[in-house]
Amino acid sequence: AWRHPTTGQLTHFGASTPLAELTPKKIQNYMDSDAVTKTKSGKAAAKPGVDKTRRAFRMALEWARAAKWIE
Questions:
Q1: Rounded Cα–Cα distance for residues 21 and 8 (Å)
Q2: What is the DSSP letter of 21?
Q3: Given this model, what pLDDT does residue 63 score?
Q4: What is the pLDDT along the chain (71 residues), one digit of tens a residue?
Q5: Hey, CA dihedral for 34, 25, 22, 48, is it positive or negative?
Q6: What is the pLDDT of residue 2?
Q7: Where would I find the H helices in 1-71?
Q8: pLDDT at 51
Q9: What's the predicted TM-score (pTM) here?
Q10: How far is residue 56's CA from residue 34's CA, in Å, rounded to a whole number?
Q11: By CB neighbour count within 10 A (0-12 exposed, 13-18 middle, 19+ buried), where does 5 fall?
Q12: Helix, strand, or coil here: 19?
C-alpha cells in the first residue's frame, strides 16, 4: 500500500519536534531506519522506494534551509 513519504518522518521524529533539533546523526539514523529501508511486513524495501523516501526528506530539508528555518 502506498503511503506519503513524510508519514515515516513524522512517526520517527515526532510531529512536534523542532527542525533545529534534527542533527546530522538523527537524520542519518532515520535514513538508515527500518521505516525507510523495510516494508511493513519487515522485508527489505525496493531500492526505488527507499530512494524516493530519502529524496523527499532531503528536498524537505533543503526547502527548510532555503526558507531559513534551519542552517
A1: 17
A2: G
A3: 92
A4: 566 666 778 788 888 888 888 899 999 999 999 989 999 899 999 999 999 989 988 998 999 999 998 88
A5: negative
A6: 61
A7: 6-13, 24-31, 34-37, 47-66
A8: 95
A9: 0.79
A10: 17
A11: middle
A12: helix
Q: Which residues contact 12 (CB under 8 A, 6 or more apart)?
A: 30, 33, 35
CA distance 51 to 57: 10
Q: What is the DSSP letter of 33?
A: S
Helix 24-31 × helix 47-66 angle, to 10°: 160
d(CA 9, CA 59): 13
b/e for 32-70, b at 16 or more Cβ within 10 A? eeebbeeeeeeeebeeeeeeebbeebeeeeeeeeeeeee
